Amino acid sequence: MNTAERVVHFLRKRAGQYFCDDCIVQELRLSKPVTRMTDQIGRGSNMRGSGNRREVAICSRCGEQKLSIMTLPEKLN
Fold first, then answer.
1. S-S: 50 plus which of 1, 24, 44, 62, CB 3.0-4.6 Å?
2. Do the Cβ atoms of 68 and 25 come closer than 8 Å?
3. Rounded to a whole number, what is the largest CA-CA distance in the chain?
4. What percent of the chain has a predicted confidence (pLDDT) above 90?
């Protein structure tokens, strides 16, 4: 599974919860930032990422208000 697939999988398993890029990096133990990737996933350019929302929100993990991404629960099926 490549990094983009890992991020999409992480978000889908936690549908309805926002996560900032920093927390995604920490949770997945990645060595590189994911901002460009989450921007693309949020815009739906990733074919499996079209049910995502990318906006300033409170991260479910760290509790900070910052640019975050969430998979919409109704897009799971």
1. 44
2. no
3. 31
4. 62
